[in-house]
Structures are given as structure tokens and as C-alpha cells.
Write a structure and sequence with these properties.
The protein is mainly alpha-helical. Helix content is about 55%, strand content about 0%. It has 22 helices and no strands.
């Protein structure tokens, strides 16, 4: 290498390259006799100029030895594969999907013996989604994708308790996209608003869809010829907008209550409760959705001590009509008159009765004896409610187990709540309270997520040890990470605030009232919180 470098340097000052140009090296391909040697002139070869060829220069380049070059490396012939290869002409593409491949893997793992058992449930992710006829107009590709995202993912964040978590999104997707009149447009835009908010966060697109939904909702409510289907869609629109406001920021502005009251007003005006008595399954789930939020709204209103809420909302939001609250006394009994055939709906009725008993006792509607007697009866009914362990048709075993454990958490939360708000006979059973607490925190450690805040609120207050508090906070963290629900920082701060009150009074012989404690911490929020 040193000698070659010396030769190159010695010839460069003479105007000669250290080697011949690439054109002369490939002379046979350019019809130049091999006897012609490159004169190595710089910057180009004179031989190339004389034979009227383009000189390819002297730079280093990669080359591959020709087949007859003895310097060419010997390449061994590949050994034939052991398995028999098929003729490529017999190969063909398989038109399959990820679902088909997953189903094949599932079926391949089943035992070879034919065992047709009803106990075996097809995993939900291996069930083909029901095809919905979507009109190409007026929605483009981006909106169609948001509809799909809502149906697959965002619908799980709506705060629906019970079987409606599956039935309501399916009904919304099938019904809202079937027409293009204002009630249907209101549902469409509210679906898009929730989906966009869930997927991208609070941004311009989500706000625009929300505004479009409100306009279509306002146009629809002026009509006097609404059908049952249209009225149901308007109720769903109000609930979707309610969910949008709840999920907008960490601490909601409280405007969710306006949309919830709007949904309740439509239910009352259109007498939709009468349809549930005729066995309309979707309508029953829709009413349960409204009532669940209404029951928990009353709970927040009862404990949120910032003055008369009707006046506050009228001033804050410039309402031209009084706000009809869910806690209107004439509606409390009516809210209990929806189907209790499903276990989740029955639990909601028990929750409502427990809360209403407290309100009526505070309002001096019930005497102490009536109050304690009613709570004793509620405790007996709550303890004996049936919790099915078998998966329901159309749901996977994991999904049914999660629903059962969520129902169990709410059941235990109701029992603990009734025990705590009773400053009398029921307080004489500390063993019962300890057993409920143990069962509740066993479930909290076991489940991955819990989207419903009320049972978490009641049970979280009971965490008296660092271990249980850590288990509770870990569940909150898992829920935020895996479900993409609203920011739970404010909710967590509320629970921690109650823990702080407990710790501050740990050495005192007296304790702060349970209801006062809850009211004080909930009222520390500037806006009315939602525990749905």
C-alpha cells in the first residue's frame, strides 16, 4: 500500500493518473482492441478522446468480477431444503383478515374431541361486529373513522352502568346514522364530539362538533311532532353532551348538569317511561343511564354547599328558564319505576332509595324511627340481591366477571354508605362493616379498572391503612392508563382530602360527622363534581 501510494504521488505531478481509466479497462465492451492501453492523462484519457468515447474517469468504484475471471470467488451450490417445496404455480394468496387468523388460532387450541358445551363462550374479540349501513353523505372518511372509534373504544367512557354499556352504543350507531333530520344530526354530532374528545383531547374539532350538536338539538326541541325514536335520540344527545362536559377537564365546570336536566325534561315531556313498561329493552337501558347520572347528581348537589344551585346556575350560565333539577321531590319516586329485571338496574334502585332516605330524613320528611326502619329494610334487600356468576349470552367470561365485580362493589358501597349515615341502631354492627370493607378491598386489589366513581368514592373513604390506600391509588392509576377516561386527579384529591380529615382527628375522642366530612370535601371543589 505504501509503494502504491508512492507511485500515485510520483505520477500525479507528471499529469498522469496512477491507473488506467474505466473506459479503457472495459475496452472489449466498447469495441476497442486490447492492444490499446490507457495513456492515463488527466483530467481525461486522450485515447477516449481519439476514439470518440466518454471517459469514465479514474475514481475508485465497486465492481464485480466477470464470470470467466479466475479471481472470482467460488460460490457453493445451495443444498436443497429437506422438506418438499411446492411448485410456485400451485401457491395462492389467502384473502383473510386478522379476525380470521385469531379465530383459527383459537379453534386450533381447542381439544380434538367434539364437546359442544353451552358453558364455553366465544371470546368477544372473536365475534364479528354487526355491519352498520353508513351513508357516505354527508360524512367523510375522517368522520367515518371517528364513528368507528366511538363504537369500538370511546363508548366505554360514557358512564353507563349495567347492560346499557353494550346495547346503547350499538343502538346509537344503528339509529343515529339511519336518517339526516335534525334529531338524527344532533346524535351524530354529539357522537363525533365525544369520539374526537376521547381520541385527541380537547381541541377545535371536538368543540366544533359539540356546537353543531347543540344547534341541532335546539332546532329539534322546537318540534311538536317528535317520534319515540327521535325523542330517544335527543335524550341520548343530552347524555352524550353531559359526558363530553364531564370529560372535558380535570375539574368540570358543572355545565354537565344542564344537559342532564335536559335529558330528564325530555323523558318527562315525552313520557318515555311508559315505553319501558311495554318492554322496549333499549329504552330501559337509556332510562337507566339517565337515572344513574341523576341519582349521583342529587348526591353531589346534596353535599355541595355553595348556595341554591338553581340561582347559581342561572347566574353562571345565563339560563332564561329555571333549572329543573333531578332531585325534584315529585320525580324521586318516578325514577324508581323503571325495569328492575336486570341485576344492575335493581342495584340502582337500591342506591336511589338509600340516598333518598337520607335526603328525606334531613328534610324532616321521615322521623327517626321511620328512617331507621327503612334503612334496615334496605340493608336486608341489598344483602340478599342475587349476583349471577355465569356469563350472559353475547359476553365473554372476563366481561361478565368484570360486570359482576363492579356490581358487587356498588352493592358493598351501598351497605357501607347506609351504615355510615345511620347514627343509631345500625351502627351497633361493627363486624358487618369490617366484613364489607374486607370484601371491597379484595375486589379493588383484584380488578384492573373501575370506571364508576361512586363506589370508589364510598369505599375509598374507608381506607384507613397505608396498604389499603396504596391499593386504592393503584386502581385509580390503572383505570386512567387503561381506559382513557377523564382525568381523575380531582377525584383522587377529594379522597385524599377525606383521608387527611380522618388522620387529623385520629387522636380525638370525638369524630366529625360522616355527612359533614363528605360535604366539606365535596364543597371544596369550585364546581359541582360528577361521581358517575
Amino acid at each position: 500500500m505504501a509503494a502504491q501510494a508512492l507511485t500515485n504521488s510520483s505520477t500525479a505531478h507528471l499529469g498522469l493518473a496512477g491507473k488506467g481509466c474505466w473506459t479503457c479497462k472495459g475496452a472489449p465492451h466498447h469495441h476497442v482492441t486490447l492492444s490499446v492501453r490507457c495513456d492515463r492523462k488527466l483530467p481525461t484519457c486522450h485515447n477516449c478522446a481519439r476514439t470518440q468515447q466518454q471517459c469514465q474517469g479514474y475514481e475508485v468504484r465497486l465492481s464485480w468480477p466477470k464470470g470467466n475471471n479466475p479471481k472470482r470467488a467460488v460460490v457453493c451450490v445451495p443444498v436443497a431444503t429437506r422438506h418438499n417445496t411446492r411448485n410456485h404455480r400451485n401457491l395462492h394468496f389467502v384473502n383473510t383478515s386478522c379476525l380470521d387468523m385469531a379465530l383459527y388460532g383459537y379453534l386450533s387450541g381447542l381439544p380434538q374431541s367434539v364437546d359442544i358445551s353451552r358453558a364455553r363462550v366465544q371470546p368477544k374479540d372473536l365475534v364479528r361486529p354487526v355491519s352498520t349501513v353508513w351513508k357516505a353523505s354527508p360524512h367523510g372518511a375522517e368522520e367515518s373513522e371517528l364513528f368507528r372509534y366511538f363504537n369500538d373504544i370511546a363508548s366505554s367512557s360514557l358512564g353507563i352502568f349495567g347492560p346499557g354499556l353494550t346495547s346503547i352504543p350499538d343502538w346509537l350507531m344503528a339509529t343515529a346514522l339511519s336518517h339526516n333530520s335534525p334529531p338524527y344530526q344532533a346524535a351524530q354530532y354529539s357522537l363525533l364530539a365525544v369520539s374526537s374528545l376521547h381520541r385527541y383531547g380537547l381541541q377545535r374539532q371536538a368543540a366544533q362538533y359539540k356546537i353543531a350538536a347543540i344547534r341541532a338539538l335546539g332546532e329539534s326541541t322546537t318540534r311538536t311532532d317528535l317520534t319515540f325514536s327521535e325523542a330517544s335520540l335527543l335524550v341520548a344527545t343530552c347524555m352524550l353532551l353531559c359526558s363530553f362536559e364531564i370529560h372535558t377537564i380535570s375539574e368540570t365546570t358543572g355545565s354537565w348538569l344542564i344537559y342532564l336536566c335536559g335529558a330528564g325534561k325530555i323523558v318527562k315531556t315525552m313520557n318515555l317511561e311508559s315505553y319501558s313498561e311495554r318492554g322496549e329493552p333499549v329504552n330501559v337501558d337509556l332510562l337507566a343511564w339517565v337515572h344513574y347520572h341523576g341519582i349521583l347528581a342529587e348526591f353531589s348537589i346534596f353535599h355541595w354547599r355553595h348556595g341554591v344551585i338553581e340561582s347559581l346556575y342561572g347566574k353562571e350560565f345565563g339560563l332564561d328558564k329555571p333549572l329543573v333539577l333531578p332531585c325534584d321531590k315529585s320525580r324521586r319516586v318516578r325514577q324508581l319505576h323503571f325495569s328492575t329485571a336486570h341485576q344492575s338496574h335493581a342495584i340502582l334502585c337500591l342506591l336511589a332509595e338509600a340516598c333518598y332516605s337520607l335526603y328525606e330524613y334531613q328534610e324532616l320528611v321521615l322521623t327517626s324511627d321511620e328512617y331507621y326502619s327503612k334503612l334496615s329494610d334496605l340493608r336486608r334487600r341489598t344483602e340478599t340481591i342475587h349476583m349471577p356468576l355465569q356469563p350472559k349470552d353475547g359476553s365473554s367470561a372476563d366481561e361478565s366477571l368484570h360486570l359482576t365485580e363492579t356490581n358487587s362493589l356498588l352493592q358493598l358501597a351501598i351497605l357501607i354508605f347506609m351504615h355510615r349515615i345511620t347514627e343509631g341502631p345500625l351502627q351497633r354492627d361493627p363486624d358487618g362493616l369490617a366484613a364489607w370493607q374486607d370484601r371491597a378491598f379484595t375486589i379493588i386489589r383484584r380488578i384492573n379498572t373501575c370506571r364508576h366513581l361512586f363506589p370508589l368514592f364510598i369505599i375509598g373513604i374507608e381506607a384507613q391503612t397505608d396498604e389499603r390506600r396504596a391499593d386504592f391509588l393503584n386502581l385509580i392509576k390503572r383505570t386512567e392508563q387503561k381506559t382513557n377516561v377523564r382525568n381523575l386527579d380531582t377525584f383522587q384529591d377529594t379522597i385524599v382530602g377525606i383521608w387527611n380529615q380522618e388522620d387529623l382527628g385520629a387522636d380525638e375522642s370525638w369524630g366529625i360527622s360522616y355527612t359533614h366530612k363528605i360535604s366539606g370535601v365535596i364543597s371544596s371543589s369550585k364546581f359541582l363534581p360528577s361521581l358517575a
